[in-house]
Design brief:
two-stranded parallel ribbon; 2 domains; 6 helices; alpha+beta
Length: 183
């Protein structure tokens, strides 16, 4: 009598950790990025990708079903990397549910999130974090710290002729120039 194989294997594990069992035909990743701090951390996103491409994928059996349930936090999150590859992106079905349809103003589920609460949260939360959390619009971290660099040949002054910046705010570029970083 031979070993009987079950219809499917569904091992358990956590993101970043090991996955138990020998292999799987159905694999589920649930919420691999826990919040903005992880989403803004390029090193963390790289570790998640390494975990996905090494530990997670090494447990797949022939023609596995992979399910990834997550907020689209960053363009370099697991889903972003999978979807940026033209060859493999066509293998995925994407279901993106927004809290509110921005065209019709219809809420996804008023019983869970009322329109009033939606607008309150929107008024308090950082715009990019709100768009990631409630509309699955990934945050682009690159270039978000400083929007522009102004270059001056002399220190800018206020209406009374007093310098606007102290010496510690300046980064010398050339002997006759300084760059002031403005957020």
């Amino acid at each position: 009598m031979g070993i009987r194989r079950p219809a499917f294997q569904l091992p358990g594990g956590r993101v970043g950790g090991s996955i138990t069992s020998k292999g799987a035909s159905i694999l589920i990743i649930d919420d691999p990025i826990k919040g903005a701090i992880e989403a803004f951390n390029a090193n963390h996103l790289e570790k998640l990708w390494l975990w996905y491409t090494s530990t997670f994928l090494s447990r797949t059996e022939v023609d596995p079903i992979e399910i990834i349930v997550m907020t689209r936090w960053a363009k370099k999150d697991i889903c972003g990397r999978l979807l940026e590859d033209p060859e493999y992106s066509k293998l995925w079905y994407v279901i993106s549910l927004e809290a509110m349809n921005e065209e019709t103003k219809e809420m996804l589920c008023e019983a869970m999130l009322s329109k009033e609460r939606y607008y309150y949260v929107k008024s308090k939360m950082d715009r990019s974090i709100f768009r990631a959390n409630y509309h699955n619009k990934p945050i682009t971290v690159e270039g978000s710290l400083y929007q522009k660099f102004n270059t001056y040949t002399q220190l800018p002054k206020d209406d009374n002729g007093k310098p606007l910046f102290e010496g510690s705010s300046l980064i010398p570029i050339l002997p006759t120039q300084a760059t002031i970083i403005s957020a």
